[in-house]
Design a protein that fits this description.
Elements (H helix, E strand, L loop, with lengths): L6 E6 L2 E9 L1 H12 L3 H6 L1 H13 L4 H11 L5 E6 L7 H15 E3 L10 E6 L15 E4 L11 E10 L6 E5 L6 H5 L8 E3 L11 E3 L2 E3 L5 E3 L6 E2 L3 H15 L5 E3 L6 E5 L3 E5 L9 E11 L3
Parallel strand pairs: 2-3
Antiparallel strand pairs: 1-2, 3-15, 4-17, 5-17, 6-16, 7-15, 7-17, 8-14, 8-16, 9-10, 9-13, 11-12
Bound molecules: fe (ii) ion.
Length: about 300
């Protein structure tokens, strides 16, 4: 593993494809001052300030952090990293929003998150839920999926940060890399997966249009990419319906998922073309509380 002063870089204990990047305390301490220069309103309303805090973070590693993150996220053999730090006592939720913003802006430009009306979304998973999607349903398995399936914006990557959690058992993150998936070849080679599917979304997502795209495409070297979520495709016929069922069963029964507990204060960033993500059900607890932040976006274009 590469050595960068101020960072500890290691392989994730459950997967060779996921890299852990621990930010050491000296960097966290040095971020407090530049991060205090902007409040969240400034970050939300003035996009350039997001780049200012991203530069503060990258400068503290002699610009090696951005190079490392961009390498991992594009590299087919990895494509995913978890970035965090050990000193969570010194930092609060606002600091974590800023840190997530800084990380995201070293990789690319966030898409507008229609659910939240800004470049990021914070949301809570609790015991009770009246929402119309699986996102906040604590006691249901959130099946493996990619993000951005029902929007026009390109979604190259996603970032999920854990802001806080209390009274949580279960709810682990499940990750699956397409190249580890037992059924990938079989389903990728089925022509139905390359047909256009229609994708809609429930009211809470605030998207008033539908999009069409296939489930499987190929990257520049012919390797499979996937864009799929169980809840939103609207099959046009029996063929498409049955294909989606096979796909869903094939994903959920995979033995090659990486199950990981994301620590509070950490973020997982994944390539959205060849990594699928999901969440295991939580153990029932009426005081259950988890707060997450998500940012989805596009790579910088040169
Ligand atoms: Fe997702």
């Amino acid at each position: 593993m590469e050595k960068i002063t101020g960072l500890t870089i290691s392989e994730h204990k459950n997967s060779k494809r996921i890299i852990n990047i621990d930010i050491e305390n000296e960097i966290i301490e040095k971020l407090i001052f530049p991060f205090n220069k902007f409040d969240l309103t400034a970050l939300e309303l003035k996009p350039f300030t997001r780049f200012t805090i991203a530069k503060s973070l990258d400068d503290l590693t002699n610009n090696k952090l951005s190079k490392l993150m961009n390498f991992i996220i594009r590299d087919r053999s990895t494509g995913c990293f978890i970035i965090g730090h050990k000193n969570i006592t010194k930092i609060n939720d606002k600091f974590l929003v800023k840190l997530s913003t800084a990380i995201a802006h070293l990789i690319g430009i966030p898409n507008h998150d229609s659910m939240a009306g800004k470049y990021y979304a914070r949301f809570v998973v609790k015991h009770e839920d009246k929402s119309d999607s699986y996102l906040r349903k604590a006691y249901r398995n959130m099946d493996l999926h990619t993000d951005g399936t029902y929007v026009k914006e390109i979604t190259d990557w996603l970032l999920m940060s854990k802001i806080d959690e209390q009274n949580v058992e279960g709810g682990e993150t499940a990750m699956l890399h397409l190249d580890d998936w037992e059924h990938c070849e079989d389903l990728f080679n089925d022509p139905i997966g390359k047909q256009n599917f229609l994708w809609g979304s429930p009211k809470s997502k605030n998207i008033d249009y539908k999009v069409e795209h296939p489930i499987f495409t190929s990257d520049e070297r012919g390797r499979p990419n996937i864009s799929y979520i169980d809840q939103f495709p609207e099959p046009k016929n029996m063929e498409q319906g049955n294909f989606l069922q096979r796909l869903s069963d094939g994903l959920e029964e995979s033995k090659n998922k990486t199950i990981t507990k994301l620590p509070v204060g950490s973020a997982i960033i994944a390539n959205n073309y060849f990594w699928l993500h999901g969440r295991r059900p939580f153990k029932e607890n009426k005081d259950l509380n988890r707060e997450l932040l998500r940012i989805r976006g596009q790579f910088f274009k040169n």
